[in-house]
Amino acid sequence: MVAPPDNDVLWARALHVTHNGSPALTGVSLGVREGEILAVTGPRGSGKTTLLRCLSGQLLPEQGEVWFNSTPVHNMGPVVRERLRRDRFGWIDPEPHLVPELTAWENVALPLMLRDASHRASKTTAQEWLERLDIGDCARKRPHALLQAQRQRIAIARALVTMPSVIFADEPTAPLHRADRAHVLRTLTTAARSHGITVVLATHDAEVAALADRTVALLDGRRVNTVHLPGAGEPTAPAAGAAGAAASSGSASDGDSDEAEGRAACSLSV
Ligand SMILES: Nc1ncnc2c1ncn2[C@@H]1O[C@H](COP(=O)(O)OP(=O)(O)OP(=O)(O)O)[C@@H](O)[C@H]1O
């Protein structure tokens, strides 16, 4: 087992995952640097969610390694992985899963209260994050009384409130209108940058990917150097080798090569 480079907060090598016998990741390797905003792009079904679930310790790969800060995640038992996820990682889903009975600030404060922070301190911190995300005036409202974009901001605040090392954001703006999408994304990336939080962002949208520092492209579960992504308003490319989602010049990477580790460019054809 070879230890990962020191400056990578996350590092994965030659990940193989199948779902019901069908390959979802085939030899994917990558490193994520501390404080970086990394977009994982590719058409629907290309393996983005599966990769984020492996990197965050939710899913163990059938083959391959995942390291977080030089600690092997793929060898951890379920209890230790669960603690790692709770203490060091945040997760944002495409749809905001909020507790309907709780107010906005209570939803945001929940992870702090689960860590035994005091009610008063949790409330103050939650309110600060709501204000940073421009929804301070929603603090006392329950999710049903809020717009989708406001609910998604609450989910983002909830992911940020514990100041995790890494936030995994799986298509975090997928259900939003274009204007909301850009605003919510900028809010997330600005907050992450100003607090040194690493973000791994899955998206099939070129405009979203353009906000990242670097892009890793997937196609049919493999790393590729380029993939055509639709921008807003353009129809989404179908998965699995379809026209409009073409990998460049056969350079799909099978894991271990330096090129595969390297700086995959994404052709952002908006
Ligand atoms: N729980 C599951 N059971 C069976 N197949 C699955 C499961 N999850 C994903 N898959 C399949 O694995 C492949 C990769 O899926 P994944 O969700 O990782 O891709 P994705 O790029 O995130 O797609 P999307 O943008 O649609 O979420 C797809 O073919 C998908 O149908």
UniProtKB/TrEMBL annotation:
Coiled-coil boundaries: none
Matches recorded under SUPFAM superfamilies: P-loop containing nucleoside triphosphate hydrolases
GO terms for MF: ATP binding
Region of interest (Disordered), ranges: 229-270
Source domain of life: Bacteria
Biased composition, class Low complexity, residue ranges: 230-254
Domain ABC transporter: residue ranges: 10-245
Keyword annotations of the record: ATP-binding, Nucleotide-binding
Keyword ATP-binding applies: yes
PROSITE patterns: ABC_TRANSPORTER_2 (PS50893)
Entries under SMART domains matching the protein: AAA (SM00382)
Keyword ATP-binding: yes
Family: Belongs to the ABC transporter superfamily.
Protein name (database record): ATP-binding cassette domain-containing protein
Naturally occurring in which organism (per UniProt): Streptomyces durmitorensis
Upper taxonomic lineage: Bacteria, Bacillati, Actinomycetota, Actinomycetes, Kitasatosporales
